Amino acid sequence: MTKISTGTITEIHCCALDDGPGVRTVVFFKGCPLRCLWCHNPETQNANPEPILRGGQHVTVGRTVHVDEIMDVVKRDIGHYRATGGGITISGGEPLAQVSFAREILKQAQASGIHTCVETSGYGDVEPLMAHVDLWLFDIKGFPKDYEQLTGGGFGLVEKSLLTLLRNGANVMIRCPIVPPFHNTQAYDDYLDQLKTLYPGIIEVQRLPFHRLGLDKYEALGREVPFIPPIPSADAPRSLPTNPSVPHATNSPNQTTG
Ligand code: SF4
Fold first, then answer.
1. Ligand 1 proximity of 34 Cβ (cutoff 6 Å)
2. Residue 244 belongs to a domain
3. Model confidence pLDDT, tens digit, residues 203-230
4. pTM (2 decimals)?
5. Which of 27, 47, 158, 187 is the Cys-Cys partner for 31 at CB 3.0 to 4.6 Å?
6. DSSP labels, 69-136
7. Are 71 and 8 in contact (CB under 8 A)?
8. What is the pLDDT of residue 213?
9. Domain assignment present for 255
10. Is residue 257 part of a domain?
11. Per-residue pLDDT tens digits for 14-34
12. What residue's CA is closest to ligand 1, atom 2?
Protein backbone atom coordinates (compact mmCIF):
# COMPACT_ATOMS: atom_id res chain seq x y z
CA MET A 1 0.00 0.00 0.00
CA THR A 2 1.25 3.47 -0.89
CA LYS A 3 2.32 5.44 2.17
CA ILE A 4 0.23 8.60 2.53
CA SER A 5 1.35 10.94 5.28
CA THR A 6 -1.24 13.70 4.89
CA GLY A 7 -5.01 13.60 5.14
CA THR A 8 -8.06 15.71 5.86
CA ILE A 9 -9.52 16.01 9.34
CA THR A 10 -12.10 18.22 11.04
CA GLU A 11 -10.53 18.28 14.49
CA ILE A 12 -8.39 16.59 17.10
CA HIS A 13 -10.23 16.20 20.39
CA CYS A 14 -8.11 15.66 23.50
CA CYS A 15 -9.14 14.05 26.82
CA ALA A 16 -12.17 12.26 25.34
CA LEU A 17 -13.85 9.68 27.55
CA ASP A 18 -16.47 8.07 25.27
CA ASP A 19 -14.47 6.80 22.33
CA GLY A 20 -12.71 3.77 23.74
CA PRO A 21 -11.14 2.87 27.07
CA GLY A 22 -9.51 5.46 29.30
CA VAL A 23 -8.58 8.99 28.35
CA ARG A 24 -8.17 9.33 24.60
CA THR A 25 -7.18 11.70 21.86
CA VAL A 26 -9.71 11.42 19.04
CA VAL A 27 -8.83 12.35 15.48
CA PHE A 28 -11.94 13.08 13.40
CA PHE A 29 -11.35 12.25 9.75
CA LYS A 30 -13.27 14.14 7.09
CA GLY A 31 -15.05 12.07 4.46
CA CYS A 32 -17.61 9.29 4.70
CA PRO A 33 -19.24 7.17 1.99
CA LEU A 34 -22.45 6.78 4.02
CA ARG A 35 -25.28 9.18 4.79
CA CYS A 36 -26.91 7.86 7.95
CA LEU A 37 -30.24 9.61 8.44
CA TRP A 38 -29.41 10.54 12.03
CA CYS A 39 -25.75 11.50 11.47
CA HIS A 40 -24.82 14.11 14.06
CA ASN A 41 -21.47 14.91 12.44
CA PRO A 42 -22.56 15.98 8.92
CA GLU A 43 -19.53 18.25 8.70
CA THR A 44 -17.41 15.08 8.49
CA GLN A 45 -19.28 13.59 5.51
CA ASN A 46 -17.78 15.63 2.68
CA ALA A 47 -14.17 14.63 1.98
CA ASN A 48 -13.10 18.20 1.26
CA PRO A 49 -12.89 21.31 3.45
CA GLU A 50 -16.11 23.33 3.17
CA PRO A 51 -17.73 26.49 4.55
CA ILE A 52 -19.80 26.30 7.71
CA LEU A 53 -21.59 29.11 9.54
CA ARG A 54 -20.33 29.60 13.10
CA GLY A 55 -21.22 32.60 15.25
CA GLY A 56 -22.63 34.39 12.20
CA GLN A 57 -19.36 33.97 10.25
CA HIS A 58 -18.50 31.54 7.49
CA VAL A 59 -15.44 29.56 8.47
CA THR A 60 -13.85 26.51 6.87
CA VAL A 61 -14.38 23.11 8.43
CA GLY A 62 -11.70 20.60 7.54
CA ARG A 63 -7.99 20.97 6.86
CA THR A 64 -5.10 18.97 5.55
CA VAL A 65 -2.68 17.75 8.19
CA HIS A 66 0.51 15.72 8.27
CA VAL A 67 0.88 12.62 10.44
CA ASP A 68 3.67 14.33 12.35
CA GLU A 69 1.33 17.14 13.46
CA ILE A 70 -1.21 14.64 14.71
CA MET A 71 1.40 12.63 16.58
CA ASP A 72 2.78 15.78 18.21
CA VAL A 73 -0.67 16.39 19.71
CA VAL A 74 -1.32 12.75 20.55
CA LYS A 75 1.98 12.26 22.37
CA ARG A 76 1.31 15.16 24.73
CA ASP A 77 -1.11 12.98 26.70
CA ILE A 78 0.94 9.80 26.91
CA GLY A 79 0.97 10.13 30.71
CA HIS A 80 -2.85 10.21 30.78
CA TYR A 81 -3.06 7.16 28.50
CA ARG A 82 -0.71 5.16 30.71
CA ALA A 83 -2.58 6.15 33.86
CA THR A 84 -6.05 5.30 32.48
CA GLY A 85 -5.52 2.63 29.81
CA GLY A 86 -6.34 5.17 27.10
CA GLY A 87 -4.75 6.05 23.79
CA ILE A 88 -5.63 7.33 20.33
CA THR A 89 -8.94 6.82 18.53
CA ILE A 90 -9.43 7.52 14.85
CA SER A 91 -13.04 8.43 14.17
CA GLY A 92 -14.93 10.50 11.66
CA GLY A 93 -16.35 10.57 9.16
CA GLU A 94 -15.05 7.19 8.14
CA PRO A 95 -11.43 6.24 8.86
CA LEU A 96 -11.52 3.59 6.11
CA ALA A 97 -12.13 6.33 3.54
CA GLN A 98 -8.52 7.50 4.13
CA VAL A 99 -7.14 4.11 4.98
CA SER A 100 -3.49 4.71 4.06
CA PHE A 101 -3.36 7.90 6.12
CA ALA A 102 -5.05 6.12 9.03
CA ARG A 103 -2.48 3.34 8.76
CA GLU A 104 0.43 5.74 9.09
CA ILE A 105 -1.04 7.34 12.21
CA LEU A 106 -1.79 3.99 13.80
CA LYS A 107 1.67 2.62 12.99
CA GLN A 108 3.36 5.60 14.60
CA ALA A 109 1.10 5.41 17.64
CA GLN A 110 1.92 1.73 18.06
CA ALA A 111 5.62 2.46 17.72
CA SER A 112 5.23 4.90 20.62
CA GLY A 113 3.46 2.29 22.76
CA ILE A 114 0.08 4.04 22.48
CA HIS A 115 -3.14 1.99 22.49
CA THR A 116 -4.96 2.32 19.17
CA CYS A 117 -8.65 2.31 18.46
CA VAL A 118 -10.71 2.84 15.27
CA GLU A 119 -14.39 3.81 15.17
CA THR A 120 -15.85 2.61 11.89
CA SER A 121 -19.01 1.81 10.01
CA GLY A 122 -17.11 -1.06 8.39
CA TYR A 123 -18.00 0.38 5.01
CA GLY A 124 -14.58 -0.01 3.40
CA ASP A 125 -11.46 -2.18 3.49
CA VAL A 126 -10.37 -3.05 7.03
CA GLU A 127 -7.44 -5.27 6.07
CA PRO A 128 -4.76 -2.53 5.74
CA LEU A 129 -5.39 -1.47 9.34
CA MET A 130 -5.78 -4.81 11.06
CA ALA A 131 -2.18 -5.17 12.24
CA HIS A 132 -2.25 -1.74 13.84
CA VAL A 133 -5.56 -1.60 15.73
CA ASP A 134 -5.89 -2.77 19.32
CA LEU A 135 -9.66 -2.25 19.50
CA TRP A 136 -12.33 -1.77 16.85
CA LEU A 137 -15.49 0.16 17.70
CA PHE A 138 -17.69 -1.16 14.93
CA ASP A 139 -21.15 0.29 14.21
CA ILE A 140 -24.20 -1.79 13.42
CA LYS A 141 -26.82 0.65 12.20
CA GLY A 142 -29.94 -1.38 11.61
CA PHE A 143 -31.40 -4.62 10.36
CA PRO A 144 -29.43 -5.82 7.30
CA LYS A 145 -32.55 -5.44 5.14
CA ASP A 146 -32.91 -1.76 6.17
CA TYR A 147 -29.25 -0.77 5.83
CA GLU A 148 -29.41 0.86 2.43
CA GLN A 149 -32.46 2.93 3.36
CA LEU A 150 -30.99 4.04 6.68
CA THR A 151 -27.39 4.71 5.65
CA GLY A 152 -27.19 4.88 1.85
CA GLY A 153 -24.94 1.79 1.77
CA GLY A 154 -25.69 -1.94 1.77
CA PHE A 155 -24.96 -4.33 4.64
CA GLY A 156 -22.89 -6.70 2.46
CA LEU A 157 -19.64 -4.73 2.72
CA VAL A 158 -20.23 -4.06 6.42
CA GLU A 159 -20.70 -7.76 7.14
CA LYS A 160 -17.65 -8.66 5.06
CA SER A 161 -15.52 -6.26 7.12
CA LEU A 162 -16.90 -7.60 10.38
CA LEU A 163 -16.24 -11.22 9.39
CA THR A 164 -12.72 -10.35 8.20
CA LEU A 165 -11.92 -8.79 11.56
CA LEU A 166 -13.37 -11.63 13.59
CA ARG A 167 -11.69 -14.36 11.52
CA ASN A 168 -8.37 -12.64 12.14
CA GLY A 169 -8.88 -12.46 15.89
CA ALA A 170 -9.39 -8.69 16.10
CA ASN A 171 -10.90 -7.15 19.22
CA VAL A 172 -14.30 -5.91 18.09
CA MET A 173 -16.83 -4.04 20.18
CA ILE A 174 -20.14 -3.42 18.43
CA ARG A 175 -21.86 -0.08 18.93
CA CYS A 176 -25.48 0.40 17.93
CA PRO A 177 -27.27 3.74 17.84
CA ILE A 178 -30.84 3.40 19.06
CA VAL A 179 -32.77 6.00 17.08
CA PRO A 180 -36.57 6.00 17.24
CA PRO A 181 -38.50 4.89 15.30
CA PHE A 182 -35.93 2.72 13.52
CA HIS A 183 -34.29 0.86 16.39
CA ASN A 184 -36.51 0.95 19.47
CA THR A 185 -38.56 -2.12 18.64
CA GLN A 186 -38.57 -5.44 20.43
CA ALA A 187 -37.55 -7.18 17.20
CA TYR A 188 -34.46 -5.00 16.85
CA ASP A 189 -33.58 -5.42 20.51
CA ASP A 190 -33.76 -9.18 19.98
CA TYR A 191 -31.54 -8.87 16.89
CA LEU A 192 -28.90 -7.01 18.89
CA ASP A 193 -29.09 -9.69 21.58
CA GLN A 194 -28.30 -12.28 18.89
CA LEU A 195 -25.28 -10.51 17.39
CA LYS A 196 -22.75 -12.28 19.60
CA THR A 197 -24.18 -15.60 18.44
CA LEU A 198 -24.42 -14.57 14.79
CA TYR A 199 -20.84 -13.25 14.80
CA PRO A 200 -18.80 -15.23 17.36
CA GLY A 201 -15.84 -13.34 18.75
CA ILE A 202 -17.53 -10.01 19.36
CA ILE A 203 -16.40 -8.71 22.75
CA GLU A 204 -19.47 -6.68 23.60
CA VAL A 205 -22.58 -5.10 22.05
CA GLN A 206 -23.29 -1.55 23.24
CA ARG A 207 -26.51 0.33 22.67
CA LEU A 208 -25.97 4.07 22.23
CA PRO A 209 -28.71 6.57 23.09
CA PHE A 210 -29.60 9.01 20.32
CA HIS A 211 -29.46 12.78 20.61
CA ARG A 212 -30.31 15.78 18.45
CA LEU A 213 -27.02 17.63 18.69
CA GLY A 214 -26.21 17.53 14.98
CA LEU A 215 -29.38 19.20 13.71
CA ASP A 216 -28.02 22.76 13.77
CA LYS A 217 -24.97 21.68 11.82
CA TYR A 218 -27.00 20.83 8.71
CA GLU A 219 -28.37 24.36 8.60
CA ALA A 220 -24.89 25.79 9.22
CA LEU A 221 -23.64 23.78 6.24
CA GLY A 222 -26.55 24.98 4.08
CA ARG A 223 -28.05 21.51 3.88
CA GLU A 224 -31.46 20.09 4.60
CA VAL A 225 -31.87 17.98 7.71
CA PRO A 226 -32.52 14.45 6.37
CA PHE A 227 -34.38 13.26 9.46
CA ILE A 228 -35.47 14.88 12.72
CA PRO A 229 -35.33 12.46 15.66
CA PRO A 230 -38.05 12.80 18.28
CA ILE A 231 -37.27 14.68 21.46
CA PRO A 232 -35.70 12.17 23.87
CA SER A 233 -38.00 11.30 26.71
CA ALA A 234 -37.15 9.28 29.77
CA ASP A 235 -40.61 7.74 29.77
CA ALA A 236 -40.96 7.24 26.01
CA PRO A 237 -42.55 3.88 25.15
CA ARG A 238 -39.95 1.26 24.35
CA SER A 239 -41.95 -0.49 21.65
CA LEU A 240 -43.10 1.18 18.48
CA PRO A 241 -44.70 -0.26 15.35
CA THR A 242 -42.79 -3.24 14.00
CA ASN A 243 -42.55 -1.70 10.53
CA PRO A 244 -41.89 2.01 11.00
CA SER A 245 -41.82 3.92 7.74
CA VAL A 246 -38.22 4.48 6.75
CA PRO A 247 -37.20 7.51 4.67
CA HIS A 248 -34.32 6.94 2.28
CA ALA A 249 -30.78 8.03 3.05
CA THR A 250 -29.57 9.76 -0.08
CA ASN A 251 -26.23 10.27 -1.67
CA SER A 252 -27.51 12.42 -4.48
CA PRO A 253 -25.30 14.62 -6.70
CA ASN A 254 -26.72 17.63 -4.86
CA GLN A 255 -25.25 16.35 -1.66
CA THR A 256 -21.56 16.51 -0.88
CA THR A 257 -19.99 13.11 -1.03
CA GLY A 258 -17.42 11.52 1.20
S1 SF4 B 1 -21.05 6.50 9.16
FE2 SF4 B 1 -23.02 7.55 9.27
S3 SF4 B 1 -23.02 8.54 11.30
FE4 SF4 B 1 -20.89 8.03 10.81
S5 SF4 B 1 -20.08 9.87 9.81
FE6 SF4 B 1 -20.81 8.51 8.18
S7 SF4 B 1 -22.89 9.25 7.79
FE8 SF4 B 1 -22.28 10.06 9.79
1. yes
2. no
3. 999 999 988 888 999 999 999 999 988 8
4. 0.91
5. 47
6. HHHHHHHTTHHHHHHHT-EEEEESS-GGGGHHHHHHHHHHHHHTT-EEEEEE---S--GGGGGG-SEE
7. no
8. 83
9. no
10. no
11. 999 999 999 999 999 999 999
12. 36
